[in-house]
Amino acid sequence: MRRREFYYREAQRIGYRSRATFKLKQIQDKFNVFKIGDIVLDVGAAPGGWSQIATEFVGIPGRVYAIDIEFIEPIDFVISIQGDITDKKTHERLMTLISEPVDIIISDLSPKVSGNWSTDHARQIFLTEHALRLAVSGLLKQGGKFVSKIFQGDLYEQFIANLKVLFTVVYLFKPKASRKGSAEIYVIAKGLKRGPRKKRKPAKKEEQND
Ligand SMILES: C[S@@+](CC[C@H](N)C(=O)[O-])C[C@H]1O[C@@H](n2cnc3c(N)ncnc32)[C@H](O)[C@@H]1O
């Protein structure tokens, strides 16, 4: 059985919404990113596999927020909103919704792929830069972690160089569940050097799926 099919079947068997869930599990096994009680923001979360397993990693005292341009079917213990991460209003909604800086931002953002690699790569980096912008604009706490998929291409080196300025350590990892031939890679950045800059507004309840 091919690797891709294996993870697809496993996801179905366990009840995870995506095969991608195993990529985050393999990241956790190797880099020990999540702790019980952590607050997590999952960006580009639909259909919700990463959010599902993130709730297992952080347990009942933890919290998971999820955002996607698509609607996310409700997931137990996940607070989700629908919005475009490149839209400033979405950032404002997230800042209002989430009352305190989060411990981890995870991003599996992908554009709708066109088949033209340099276009898809540029779009994916553009999306991921918006997730990173969230992190440095006060939503990720000082010392926090940023885990993200990256499409490799000519903008990749500069993106990693920027991460290395912002975080204390940056690891690159290709999980087994990621297709061998694919140009995606995952970055695990730990220790955000700058803390929140803005005074945060109090939390407001939005669509809550729990
Ligand atoms: C590979 S999927 C994420 C899969 C997810 N990690 C899981 O395990 O179920 C990539 C997601 O990025 C989302 N996305 C693409 N552009 C976006 C944008 N501008 N704002 C928010 N989400 C976006 C897509 O809608 C898609 O759901």
Q: Summary?
A:
The chain is an alpha/beta fold. It has helices spanning about 5-15, 20-30, 50-60, 90-95, 115-140, 155-165; strands at about 40-45, 65-70, 80, 100-105, 140-150, 165-175, 185-190. It starts with a helix and ends in an 18-residue tail after the last strand.
Largest sheet: 7 strands, mixed
- The shape is globular
Total strands: the figure is 7
Please list the strands of the largest sheet in the order they lie side by side.
3-2-1-4-5-7-6
Termini separation: 36 Å
Query: What is the succession of H and E elements?
Result: HHEHEEHEHEHEE
Gyration radius from CA atoms, angstroms: 16 Å
Helices, by number, come to: 6
- Global mean pLDDT: 92
Give the helix level as a range of percent: 25-40%
How much of the sequence lies in strands comes to: 15-25%
Main traits of this protein?
210 residues; alpha/beta; binds S-adenosylmethionine
Task: Give a structural overview.
By secondary structure, the protein is α/β, with parallel strands linked by helices. 37% of the residues lie in helices and 24% in strands. The chain is built from six helices and seven strands; from the N terminus they run ααβαββαβαβαββ. It has helices at 3-14, 21-31, 49-58, 88-97, 117-139, 156-166; strands at 39-43, 63-68, 78-82, 102-107, 140-151, 167-173, 184-192. The chain has a seven-stranded mixed β-sheet, sandwiched between helices. The longest helix has 23 residues, at 117-139. The protein is globular, with a radius of gyration of 16 Å. It starts with a helix and ends in an 18-residue tail after the last strand. The mean pLDDT is 92. The structure holds S-adenosylmethionine.
